[in-house]
Each structure stands twice: as C-alpha cells, then as structure tokens.
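In the design runs reported in the main text, the only information available to the sequence generator was the tokenized backbone. The following block is the verbatim input for one such run; it is reproduced so that readers can re-run the procedure and compare outputs position by position.
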C-alpha cells in the first residue's frame, strides 16, 4: 500500500497519466483528510478551481490542491510530534491519566477528521493549514465559547455524525465538529439547548 509521500510523487509526476495523478490525489486523502475524505476533497477542488467530478483535471490544479494538502499535513505532523513529546514528559513526571485533549487526540491520530465536516459541501473556506493552526492554538489555550476556526458562536449539538465521536457540537457557520476540549462547559450546554430548539 502506497504511503502519502509516494502518492504525492505520482500527483506531481508529469510522466503519469492525468487520470492516475487525480486518483493518487484522492488516495492521499485516505492518509490525511482533516475534514474527512469527501469534505476535504470538496474543499481542495473548490480552492484549486476544478469540479469534484472532473476526470480530466489540469495537472497544475491537481498540484495546487496537493500543495495545500501537504502544507496542512506538515502543520498537523509537527503538532503530533509536540503532543507526543508533551505526553512523554507528563508520564515521566507521573501524570499517567490523559486529559480531555488527549482523549480527543487519540481519535484523530494521523490527522483524519481533526476538523470533521459531516456535510461534505459545508466546510471552512480558509486554507487547510490555517484552519489547523487555529484549531491547534485553541487546543493549547483555555476553553472558549466559539468555534476555534471561524469564531462563529452558532454551535448546535448533532447526533448520528459519520464520525467518532458520533455526537457533538457542530459550528453552523463553517460546518466543523468542534472538539469538546476547546469549549467551556457553558458553551457545550448551550449547543445542547440549541439542538433541542432546532428539533422542536
């Protein structure tokens, strides 16, 4: 099974058939897809300027999409290195019980679904790397009351998400499943109430 870097080389290789280059970019999303596979694909297509169903994409557009994906992956991998180092230090210092950020991180190891978007057509518009930087910054500070990506305050509790956890606060503005550790208890309670109001 090809890894992310070998797939990325195929996307960039002008000797490869354009259909293979597109296929390789799609396969990259099996290794790293911050919004989930379908939403990340939709995001990359819209940012690079090609239709998600287009089978004969201009290779330059595929490479532009790959560039954005690689930059975001570098941001996430650097965070994972820092996270692992922090956990080693905590364990060395006797802190064996992981916190809520650690529980959330365990579900997103490798970067799949770190900013899950259940609706593949609703996702942040900013570059993926910027979205991940904002999310990481929120994980490293005290919990707040708004979406860490778009600062939207319209958070609604959703059930039956196609992700683990399958329930949680979703930003009505940018569509991400907001990690619970970045929100205060009051913001989480408000999101649950908002869900009840929407259902009524």
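Verbatim output:
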């Amino acid at each position: 099974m090809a890894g992310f870097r070998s797939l990325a080389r195929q996307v960039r290789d002008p000797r490869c058939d354009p259909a293979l280059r597109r296929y390789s970019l799609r396969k990259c999303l099996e290794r790293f897809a911050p919004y989930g596979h379908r939403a990340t694909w939709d995001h990359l297509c819209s940012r690079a300027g090609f239709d998600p169903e287009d089978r004969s994409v201009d290779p330059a557009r595929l490479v532009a999409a790959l560039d954005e994906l690689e930059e975001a992956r570098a941001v996430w991998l650097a965070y994972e290195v820092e996270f692992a180092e922090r956990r080693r230090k905590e364990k060395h210092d006797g802190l064996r019980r992981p916190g809520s950020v650690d529980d959330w991180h365990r579900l997103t190891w490798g970067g799949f679904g770190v900013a899950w978007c259940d609706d593949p057509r609703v996702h942040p518009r900013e570059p993926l790397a910027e979205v991940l930087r904002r999310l990481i910054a929120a994980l490293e500070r005290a919990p707040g009351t708004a979406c860490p990506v778009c600062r939207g305050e319209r958070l609604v509790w959703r059930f039956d998400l196609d992700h683990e956890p399958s329930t949680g606060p979703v930003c009505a503005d940018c569509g991400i499943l907001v990690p619970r550790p970045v929100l205060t208890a009051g913001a989480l309670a408000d999101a649950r109430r908002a869900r009840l109001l929407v259902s009524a």
